[in-house]
Every structure is written in C-alpha cells, then in structure tokens.
Structures
1.
Amino acid sequence: MTTRADRRTRHRAGRSGRRTEFGGYAAVAWPRLLRTAHLLTGDAAEADALTRTALSDAYARWRRIPGNDTDFYVRRLLVRHHLGRHLGRRLGRRLGRRPHRTGPVPQGPLTRALAALPARQRVVLVLRLGEDLGRLEIAEMLGWSVGAVKSYERRGLKALGAI
C-alpha cells in the first residue's frame, strides 16, 4: 500500500524529470523559434516576448504534446499567438483605439519587407521560406485549407516583388 508521502515523492520526481526534458528542448529550440518570431514581428523585444509566451504555453501542456510532434506543436503556438496579437490590434483600431508601435522600426531589408505585408501573408512566407515547411504542413498548423495557404503565399510573393 502506498502512503501519501510516497505519492507526493513520485509526483515531485515526475515534475523534475519533466522540467529537465522541457529545459533541454527549449535550449535547443530557442534560437530557431526566436529567429522565426523575429521574422514574424520585425522587433527583437516583441520576438523575445512571443517566444517566451509560446514556450511557457508549451511547458504547461508538455505532458500532452506528442514527442514526435513537439516542433510542430510549439511552432503552431508561436504563430497562433502572433496572429492573435495582430488581430487584437486590428480589432482595437476598428473600435477607435489609436494604433501604437511596440518597438523600433524593423532593421534589415528582409525584415522591413516582411513587416510591410499583412500578417497572414507574412506568416505563410516565414513558414514556407524561412522554416522550409510544405503547404500541407502550414495548412495543418494554421487550420486553413491548402488553397488558402497558396493564395496567401502568392499574394505575399507578389507584394515582395513590388517592394
């Protein structure tokens, strides 16, 4: 028969192993996620905050994330948080709130060009070209159809060619 103290000890040991496993993943994935977030946001501070938010959400759900889909899941969290922030700002403008820039003007020609695109086009191009994901993977990640991904990709590339 197990005692309450035995159960508590096993629970704490499980949490410690979970922290170690997640810490290893986060240390390896951090640079790549931060680079993706920087391409999405165009601002280093905002990219850092976005990456931390995605990783903290992943940590909270760590036991439920399939081991072979960890990168997909965390990248999806990152992109969805970015789109949620962007759409929240857009809604604020519709409600009459003044738009505000959270950071400095993006640096570098690629970052400036991406920042000029609408959020969905930017997300598709960053995932397609920066992360080298296929259209089907992007569609699954975002919950869109493959046709929508193709359309956003085509429009984004056309806009980048015009810039």
Note: Residues 4-41 form the longest helix (38 residues).
2.
Amino acid sequence: MKITDGPDFASSSLPRHLLRGAVGIGSLVGAFALLPLYGPITLALAPLGLVALRGCPMCWAIGLAQTLSRGRLQRECTDGRCELKPAGSTPAGTTPAPPAFEARGPGRSPALSAPPGGTSQR
C-alpha cells in the first residue's frame, strides 16, 4: 500500500456532504433527546446517524475538509521538496506529484523526509 492510499471520507459535492451531516447529527441527537418521550425505540435512530456520518462525527469532519479541498489543492515536488499549492499553479517544466500528505508520525524520523543533501527548510 502506498502512502497516497488512505480512507476517503469526501462526498461528491458540498451540499450532499452537508445534508449527510444534518441527517447524521440530527439522528444522533434525536436518538437521545427523544428517549424520555418515546422510550428506547428512539435509539433506533443512532445507527442511521452513524451510517450517515460514515462511522463517527470526526470522520464526517475529515470528509468535509476533503470535500472542500478536492480539486483546489495539488502537491508539487521540485528538487526533493514538496508543497501544497492551488490547482493550476504548476510552473512550466515541473510535474505535480500525486496528492498525498508527507508521512510523518511515530516511528518516522524527520531525516527520512528531508530533501537530499540537506535539512528540510521550514
């Protein structure tokens, strides 16, 4: 599996994603808010909310960020250094890299992601 492969929580459009969020969050809130009025039967709304949010509210929020940035950002690598730039701003003679985030985290040292022949510039 490449680093570029990963979960994609984005929707096909922003209105569709916001509608999924309204249904998901509304169902989760309704499942517990209506519990005193209608009893445990309202808990049946909780799975609907989780399906609409694709698992959890954080997954929905990540999908919102992905939906907003889709097609607007591209990763551009030049001389071993990669940057996120607005789509369509690639200078002549360079090739945009596939959209991915730099793999850093536990077990990864900054030296592994530094450009060849030097330290990374920040």
Note: Residues 102 and 121 are 14 Å apart (CA to CA).
3.
Amino acid sequence: MNAGQRSGVTRDASALPRRRERGAGTVLALAVVAVTVTLTTAAIGVTGAWGARQKAAVAADATALAAADVAAGRASGEPCARADIVARANGASVTGCVVAAVVVSVEVSVPYLGWEASAAARAGPPGSR
C-alpha cells in the first residue's frame, strides 16, 4: 500500500482541479499587440493631421506674399490668380482671396484623409494695414 491509501485519501488525477489558465499568456500578448497597433495608428493619424495643418499654414503664407507682390505692383498679373498658382505649387487650394488696396488676405486648404486642413494669412507692404 502506498501512503495515500493508508490515510484513506485516494489520489485520482481526475479529482484534481483543472488549470483553466492555459493560453492566458497568448491572450494577454494579443491584447498588448492590439493596443499597441491601435495607439500607433492613432498617433500616425494625429501626426499626419498636424503635418497637413503646417503645410496649409506655409502655403497660406507663401500665397499671401505672392499675391501681395502683385497687388503692390512688384509682379504682373492679378493677385488672386497668382495666389491660386502659388497655392497649387504648395499642394493647397485657395478657398478665399480678398484684395484691399495692397493688402491681400487668403485662405487655403490642404486635403488629408478625407478631411481638409485650412489656414489663413494676410500680407502687404511694410506699414500697410
């Protein structure tokens, strides 16, 4: 007789509690990967939107300056037409252009993932308002 039988306790393998934790590490690893992918995707989207906004701001500044040069007589043409050319060269499109004497105000937009980042700028000769 063995020791388990002497004390009246039988050691049957089926009587032991089963471990239900098999594969828990795999599930945890998959959850960590899913969270990492989600956060990375969100970070890329936000960073791209910020980049599109910066691109729109740069395009608006360049567009306003070029249009103001035309309005002040430093370049030939029509100010809003020049604004459109410069905006397109910067990957943007003009959504608004107002000429008041030699001061030009423009608004441009840059597409990004179905959205549009926009920016506005105003330019004119020194001392003009």
Note: The longest strand covers residues 103-112.
